[in-house]
Request: fold
Amino acid sequence: MVANTEAPLTQAERKALSDQCMLDAAVRLIVERGPEKTTLKALGEAAGYSRGLVTYRFGSKAGLFKAVIKRVSERFGQEVDAAVAGSTGIDAVLAAAETYYRFVLRSPKDIRAMQILFHSAAEPGSSLTEVVNRVHARQRAQVAEWVAAGQRSGAINPKLCAATFAARFCAYTLGMTFYWMLDSRSIQWEQAHQDFKVSIQQQLAA
Amino acid sequence: MVANTEAPLTQAERKALSDQCMLDAAVRLIVERGPEKTTLKALGEAAGYSRGLVTYRFGSKAGLFKAVIKRVSERFGQEVDAAVAGSTGIDAVLAAAETYYRFVLRSPKDIRAMQILFHSAAEPGSSLTEVVNRVHARQRAQVAEWVAAGQRSGAINPKLCAATFAARFCAYTLGMTFYWMLDSRSIQWEQAHQDFKVSIQQQLAA
DNA sequence: AAGATACTTGCTATCGACAAGTAAGTATAT
DNA sequence: ATATACTTACTTGTCGATAGCAAGTATCTT
Reply:
């Protein structure tokens, strides 16, 4: 988490290192104290630098947070792509659900940080709105594509509106993650996931 | 929104009036600039008082926001009770969904403000966590009750887990509201609602 | 050695919340 | 009835802490 202070590095390496440290520090501090109470001073120190580096590198605190969203959502997107591989239709949707379920268990801090940033995008005047909206629009479009493909192949109920199902699928995931964050004990994360898969199959079945 | 300056009021009336003005101002400012950027100064002025009154009356800014959550969620709860009336099972669940759908259209500012406050409850160390968690636990329990009653009367699929369905139902609602706030154009609020009702019936059918 | 890039420090306006103050309403004694 | 003591409603002074800019220093590159 703290910058390495050994052997001389190239400028590019220095930059890459400090970027990495700052993004890690951001995730950690967002989860520990929330974005607003995460001060530039704390971010700099947690990353092993000064309070000024965040603003210099990312333009502002919000700029750093945007970078966090991009990094985590990109990593998640890659995992989904890998899990879905070539499959479409119901299988693809189930694989995506499964991937998210596991991602939350494996990287709870990343998910917590990202969800907190998603939330802040819903506040008026937030500079994260556009990025976050793009991330979610993309996710919904991807799900809708799988469903549409399944409909063309006859495996999925043709009466269903692919876009609306996709929104429902993604909205559920967001809401459930919110509950999980609020009080992980009050929600049966695993059972909810299993029941959700059953519900998906039921909803999509031709 | 601004305190009345006419005829002398009793202490109780003065208090009720200023409380009302402050709660209204809070909703307005949360929707206009978000909770963090809503300053005590702005709250006081918008309500027609000084910057000190919020702290004096509600203890802190967060105290005022708690009161906002209580007020709006209570009002929504009453509307649900009225709409559901005596019905149970699928009808009760559909009536609750319908009530929320309409509440959002009729009082978008109240919903926006409340959802923003819900979000802030998911941040670490938030003093709203407990209140918000209680509100949502209660909503889920209520939905689960309707479902369980429907199962006892044989109208709802007995294999379903009532609590898990309730969580799914409420999580969807939260997530969809988030999308609606993020970009109301990208979401077909009405179609999503209609499809949701069909999906509920399908999921609950015996 | 000179320029470019990575990073730090000085500064200003603004914030929330506490403490101390003032104004307005209420109770009691004559 | 009205003056005085008291309580409650509300305001203002103050303090430490904040984000982000401008101007500086350290480190790498050519």
Notes: Chain A has a mean pLDDT of 94.
